[in-house]
Prior knowledge:
Layout: H1 25-28, H2 37-49, H3 53-58, H4 70-79, E1 81-90, E2 94-102, E3 108-120, E4 123-131
Antiparallel strand pairs: 1-2, 2-3, 3-4
Amino acid sequence: MEKNQSMENKICFCDTGLLFENCCGLYLEKNQKAPAALALMRSRYSAYASHNADYLIETTYISERKYYSKTEILRWAQENKWQKLEILSFTENTVEFKAYFLDSDQKPQIHYEFSTFKFENGAWFYVDGKFE
């Protein structure tokens, strides 16, 4: 979905079944802070699906940002077609998930990650992830 297309009355990219504007849109478009690591993880998936690289950088823990390129994030987000998010487990500061997508050759792929988050200065941030 192109960023300039209206998300009004659209179901959110993450798996809650809620409208985007009442779910991840609160964080991606209305500048609210995600209230928990799980909500941040869901909103980061929606940011990939909606090609919002700025949000992905902003919600990465500051000491980790140097390892990420906004250009590379945007390229990866745009060349894949995001299908669905499956939350496998979560704690206060971790989320285990699978993100399903079609790659640039339209082949189904699954990205598995066990992510770690940190709460600092009133906001949650993505720190890092273990992949399989």
